[in-house]
Structure formats: structure tokens, C-alpha cells
Design goal:
- The structure is a single chain.
- The chain is of the alpha+beta class and about 260 residues long.
- Helices cover about 25% and strands about 30% of the residues.
- α5 packs across α6.
- The model has no long low-confidence stretch (mean pLDDT about 90).
């Protein structure tokens, strides 16, 4: 663990201790996959309280962590909501809009002086982008963001639950010798196990937000696998075996 990783771990422990000692709900900034792995690896060092991670929608990659004392429960009516709002960014005139990408929206937001850790996932659609954001920053962004690249835009603040975004996926199917991580990734991205194995050993593969560096790691139904530089997919339990013992497998790959 390098110095930055150690500082993040200490910061998360401080947040957890604050929640525990003061009996209040405390939330982190948005954490990326590597930072979420540091959070998971420190699980045994946190005080005894409830912890939840959420990024504003199902399968979010960047997520906040909530540290909750026993008085709080996400199952009760008094459950605290994550301080996450959604920014819907749309061209004023779609006809004359640039073909805007994730990078364009991120650049425009960072140019406002906003730290990346205050922003969650950016969901770029052909005619709109949804940006998960810390609630307190939303009015500033809605007021100040008027252009993305060369396109004049409007910004609407809404609840994450109000957006109609549904992740686009495609089904990938085939047979694999086992549910080992290297075999499943090879099926997901249409490459050989020998080519993709170094990605696992090189710390570029995360399963449910946790870093996995073993090629022999066995996946389970509904596991969410993210591979840096390639994308992510959801693993579905094999549907049976061939006569030669290979597994019939389906995956939902995000596109």
C-alpha cells in the first residue's frame, strides 16, 4: 500500500470512528474501484457499525460509502438517504449539438474546479448525460455549467430514482472449462486466457468492487466483474454441462 492508499484508508477509518462515537450517519466521497477495494480490505478495522456502498443506481462503478450507527437502518422508514443527486445535462438545441462523450462531460465539469471525487458515474447517452453528484454541489453546477465542448447545455437537478437510464447490455454465451475468473473473462472479451491473465495478475480486475489477483478465483452467480481498459460484465450461473464437462455460460456485458 502506497502513501496515497494509506491516507485514504486512514480517512475512511476516521469517518467510521466519527459515525460510531457521535452516533450519526457519515458519508465518504465517491470512491473508484481501487479505492473501494481499499475500503473492503479494511473491513476488520472499522468499529462495529453498519456500512453500505451506493453510487446512485444499480451497478454504479463509483460509489459512496455510508457509515451508520445502530440507530440507523436502510430497511426502516427513518433510513438516511445518500447525499447523491443526479444532474441531467442536455443540449439546448440537439440539432446543432456536438457528438458529446463521457470525456467531454467530465472535462467540462472539472473545468469548473470540481474534484473528481465529488462526482460519481457519468452516463453519456446520445442526447443527454446523467451525472451522479454530491448533493451540495448540484446547485453550483446547475448555475455555472452552460457549455460542454462547443455545445450550449441546460442542467436539471433530479433524484437518481427519477431518471430513465437503463444500462445497455449484450448477452455473451459460450462454453468454458470452468468458472475460473480467467476463463470467464476470456469468454466475455473474446480473447485467449493467456492474453488476459496478466490483467488479473496486474491488478486490473475487480469483482464486486474487490481487487482479485488470482486467475483461479471462482465466480458466483450475479458477480459484477470490471476489467480496466476492457469494460464490465455480470456473470450468470452456468446452465449445465456438455458431455465433455464444459459449462454452458451466459454473461451480460455492458456496452
Amino acid at each position: 500500500m502506497n502513501r496515497e492508499d494509506d491516507l485514504l484508508k486512514r480517512r475512511l477509518l476516521d469517518l467510521a470512528n466519527t459515525a460510531y462515537m457521535r452516533g450519526i450517519a457519515v458519508y465518504s466521497d465517491f470512491l473508484n474501484l481501487w479505492e473501494l477495494n481499499i475500503y473492503h480490505s479494511a473491513a476488520e478495522e472499522f468499529p462495529p457499525l453498519r456500512r453500505e456502498a451506493f453510487g446512485g443506481y444499480e451497478y454504479a462503478e463509483r460509489q459512496m460509502v455510508a457509515f451508520l450507527p445502530d440507530a440507523f437502518s436502510f430497511d426502516g422508514e427513518t433510513a438516511p438517504a445518500f447525499p447523491i443527486r443526479c444532474l441531467a445535462i442536455r443540449p439546448v438545441n440537439e440539432k446543432f449539438s456536438d457528438a458529446l462523450t463521457h470525456r467531454d462531460y467530465l472535462g467540462a465539469l472539472l473545468n469548473l474546479g470540481i474534484d473528481r471525487c465529488k462526482l460519481g458515474d457519468i452516463l453519456a447517452e446520445p442526447s443527454c448525460a446523467y451525472v451522479m453528484c454530491q448533493e451540495k454541489l448540484c446547485p453550483f453546477i446547475a448555475r455555472e455549467l452552460s457549455r460542454v465542448k462547443h455545445t450550449t447545455v441546460t442542467v436539471e437537478i433530479c433524484s437518481p430514482g427519477e431518471i430513465s437510464y437503463v444500462p445497455r447490455t449484450e448477452t455473451v454465451s459460450g462454453t468454458i472449462p470452468s468458472v475460473r475468473l480467467d476463463a470467464v473473462i476470456a469468454l466475455a472479451f473474446g480473447a485467449s486466457r493467456s492474453k488476459l491473465a496478466p490483467l488479473i495478475e496486474g491488478g486490473k480486475v475487480f469483482v464486486n468492487g474487490r481487487l482479485v489477483t488470482s486467475n483461479a478465483y471462482l465466480l458466483r452467480d450475479q458477480d459484477l466483474v470490471s476489467v480496466r481498459g476492457y469494460g464490465k460484465f455480470r456473470f450468470l450461473e452456468p446452465e449445465g454441462q456438455t458431455r465433455k464437462g464444459r459449462y454452458f455460460t451466459r454473461l451480460e456485458r455492458f456496452v
